């Protein structure tokens, strides 16, 4: 289940990134960061399940930072 969520979030993030690169319209960049942050959260949960807590916490910290950046992008635009 987590692997499917990881693939879905990464695919959505890549689609937003490709759209921005092709059209040079970066209006959806905050959404891209949001979905990539959610992907990092799922990867952190997978690492916790594998009993690799250091990588799990690293992914969770990156997720929190990217969610903060995404929310700032939503509020400032």
Q: What topology emerges from the helices and strands here?
A:
Layout: H1 2-23, H2 29-49, H3 53-76
Helix content: over 70%
Mean of pLDDT? 95
- Cα-to-Cα separation, first versus last residue: 34 Å
**Main beta sheet, described?**
none
Concise structural overview:
Helices cover 87% and strands 0% of the residues. The chain has helices at 2-23, 29-49, 53-76.
Main attributes?
87% helix, 3 helices, 0% strand, single chain, mainly alpha, flat, 77 residues
Description:
This protein has one domain. It is 87% helix and 0% strand. The chain is built from 3 helices and no strands. The chain has helices spanning 2-23, 29-49, 53-76. It is flat and about 40 Å long. The model has no long low-confidence stretch (mean pLDDT 95).
